Amino acid sequence: MASQGFRTDSARRRPARSLPAGQRETDWPGVRLHIVTGKGGTGKTTAAAALALALASGGHRTLLAEVEGRQSIARLFDVPPLPYEETKVAVAPGGGELYGLAVDPKAALLDYLEMFYRLGRAGRMLEKIGAVDFATTIAPGVRDVLLTGKVYEAVRRRETIRDGGAEVERPVYDAVVMDAPPTGRITRFLNVNEEVVGLAKVGPIRNQANSIMTLMRSNLTAVHLVSVLEEMPVQETADAVTELEQIGLPVGGVFVNMVREPFLPPSALEAATRGSLDRSEVLDGLAAAGLGRRSRATGNDTSHAALATALLEEAAGHGERVAMEHTERGELLSLGRPTYELPALAGGIDLGALYQLAGLLGEQGAA
Amino acid sequence: MTLDIDTLLDDPATRILVCCGSGGVGKTTTAAALGVRAAERGRRVVVLTIDPARRLAQSLGLAELDNTPRPVAGIDTSAGGALHAMMLDMKRTFDEVIEGHATPEKASQILENPFYQALSSSFAGTQEYMAMEKLGQLRAQADAGEHDWDLIVVDTPPSRSALDFLDAPQRLGSFLDGRFIRVLSAPAKAGGRAYFKVMSAAIGTATGLMTKLLGAQVLKDVQTFVAALDTMFGGFRERADATYRLLQAPGTAFLVVAAPERDALREASYFVERLEDEGMPLAGLVLNRVHTGPAEGLSAERALTAAEDLDDAGEHALTAGLLRIHADRMRLSEREKAVASRFVQAHPAVEVAQVPARPQDVHDLDGLRGVGADLARSGQPVLSV
């Protein structure tokens, strides 16, 4: 969709800001559209939000767009549900701004029709006879063209600002981050061109699909993959890399989420998994720490012996898990993509946690 | 309240078990584990999986996506049960619906139509619709005595939202049978005369716009598709409605699967409420991958303080490490309990079964047996409200 039109975006009404601060050293110079996908449950939305925040820091303006109608951005940033309008959801360290947008296919379609056909009341009639429903839910591929089209428009939108005496034109957003559908559906979602080509050989939808595809295949775009160190998500990540490369989309980085640090040195981990840790040493340690007596509060058996057995059992599970994570990390590294690690946060994800994760992504060169 | 899985599985009145929930919570594994357990307890089971992980599929002997239930090897059949499993091929299922309801000539016309091809392979709701269709077929085959299955376990597609499973079939069904598609194909038939006058402007705009947006060819494809489908009109919505009624009938039980995380439980809540609204029988919630510990009596705080004391004293590094492992696990467990108890408070009548987290993924029959045993293990300390 073209570079103007659409609804009034609050991003355009704000006072012009100064030109961006000096470019940072990142792994993705020149990339303006970051598409984030991952298997369900890997923390894809959290990673996308942290990346958007990291990209905004240092005086940049970033848009985080969601396309699945879940209102995840509003929940994550603890703001009211987002309207179909770019809304400021957070400020980033160093004067940056983060905007959020929940893309709605129906609103996007009506916008689009309004822009090109000046429909007015006819738009509502279309809705009445089911044409809007048809286009946004049934017509194969059209929904995805509308969703990606809105994001495409945000990437390309430009504004004119006054820098000293001169008028300078620049993009409204330094970067756009799309919280995309999960890996299982990502290739089909992004491959809008292929989707539509089977259906529409000519016409505006087809042209639109072509323009979106050109942007997504260019070096302005990177498709990042979020995984955790478990077998299925890692396998899906590897599959997604292959599929994305097949359709010519630029694969970005791998975000390893919810990483937990081992609590024991390697030799002890191995012994823990084998069940050969020194039990008497653990018993002594518990005695020294004053732990291990019958607790009246819970009635549980927390004698030295029972506690030692329980802790050794937990340590064995921990050892097994660390070993598995080691294997899976190897699999992810073998994909040969830049890799970023995000820790599991015991307190869960809140706004503070997002800033912490954003900081870590910045340090590792993701933004 | 604890969900008693074995009673549910053993009850001959239980004919269909639907596992639903948001993506990444372990629906497919749960469905497979229930199938294995029911079969080994004497039921004759068929498991319909949608998109299993490769190694899980292999463990069920599902090397290819061929849309036909295959016997699963390695099942203990001494109790008289059996297990079949299949992976859904949505395009093939759609093709079969067409082939089953149209003359060979018409069927091939439809199958070759570009709009049909796009619709059957890429519409986001087709997978849900075809999962329901396949479920209906399996049930009909069982009822007709073609197979001796007495329990069908269904995994649901990895939808945008768990509710899509219920809505998409009707959405597609009502589109295929609905007014709009008739409007597109034959505007003059869409209504009476007075009505026609009012609607004609909108219809004209609609067809005009469709032509502009998608090109004239698309509209022609849609019209040809509709014309070819003519004999099947009514059939789609009817079939979707019939399967929907099957889901409301006694003998069907829904299991909502969730991980003890905020988002997954929120989806589970929506689903539970929706099932109640629709009068669909909810058997309970499977809370998957729960971190419980053998030493629940020792809190995270105490364990961490003790670990620090040991570090300060400069001794017993091993014990300090073990205490930190424990504290980390307890913290996670406490957070899980907090989100789970919110669900329990909101839905006190929903029975819950917990499956402890495993250090490794499940991808063989023994692993599935283990999950099944965990599902059935009742009387464990459940969530404290």
TrEMBL record, chain A:
Pfam family, one: ArsA_ATPase
InterPro entries xref list: ArsA/GET3_ATPase-like, ATPase_ArsA/GET3, P-loop_NTPase
SUPFAM superfamilies linked to this entry: P-loop containing nucleoside triphosphate hydrolases
ArsA/GET3 Anion-transporting ATPase-like domain residues: 33-216
Region Disordered: start-end pairs: 1-24
Source organism per UniProt: Kineosporia mesophila
Protein name: ArsA-related P-loop ATPase
Domain of life: Bacteria
TrEMBL record, chain B:
Membrane spanning residue stretches: none
Pfam families listed in its UniProt record: ArsA_ATPase
Annotated ArsA/GET3 Anion-transporting ATPase-like domain residues: 14-290
UniProt protein name: ArsA/GET3 Anion-transporting ATPase-like domain-containing protein
Species per Swiss-Prot/TrEMBL record: Kineosporia mesophila
